Amino acid sequence: MEEVQNWRDILRKIVEDSKEKQRLIQALSISNITMSRWINGESTPRPPKLRSLVGLLSQDYREMMIAALREEKGLGEFVNPLDDETPQDIPPEFYAQVLLTRATTPRPLRYWSTCDLILRQALSQLDPHRQGLALWLIRCMPPSGPHKKVRSLRECLGMGTHPWKENLEPDGMFLGAESLAGHVVTMFHPQIVADLQEENTITPQVVTENERSCAIYPILYAGKIAGVLSALSQQVDYFSAYNRSSLLQKYADLMALALEPSDFYSDEEIMLHTMPPQEKQKKSFSRFSQIFRDVQQTVHDNVQSDLFVWQHLEEELLTPKQDAPEAH
To answer: What is the pTM of this model?
Structure first.
């Protein structure tokens, strides 16, 4: 790779690949015109956008970009990784622990046990001082509907440190095309947002006061996707530091071991819909226990019963209700 000193020249070289250019434009929620202005020196991205741009680049280009930005007066401070103790790698012994858990845990418990193990370790490394972080495993729902496509995602397992609850699973929602997770699943590429409350970008359905920055990485296997590993921080720009984004990506890759090959879908199998607001979803979820009991009268496997109920609720939320005819 030839050496390029100016960060705008590096960006110009990167976007010579039309697919990469389109990926960056979509991930950053900017226009072609804005990208051209950055490259031509007509404008400079605001610090949050600049950090997000750096975080989206491959490792080689990221290192070149950081070096160039540090040389440019007034920009170096925006890309220096935050001083912390976050490592860049997962401990080798933890890989062995995951493989052992996967090999020795009975099949009905293997998915939950492996995911729980990975989420706890990831949380301890990404937020060692418990400053406020939430992690979600968000999975594709099985294909359904007339076209047999993946129509939504579901927040399956979640853990957090204060101000989030330790166990986030009871708060899990369906997500769709309207969400950042949905965007990542559709594009098969990660997304980092430096400031959720300031950046003009695709946003989740609800951004609470605790959610200031996020990073979402796809869970991939054999060119297919099962969902994403999503991280939320109450600190602005938490994931622009290379050590954190790199570590999160490695945990997303590791999470693939907790899933079955049949849990992964090709891009042709995905057609995400827009899911209803959380309040409407919560009303449907209030009937979960009753539906589960009804299902267990004919389906005695708890895992299958649980999946059947979620599929029932997904269908209910995606099916528009017809207004009752007026009486004459």
So the answer is: 0.77
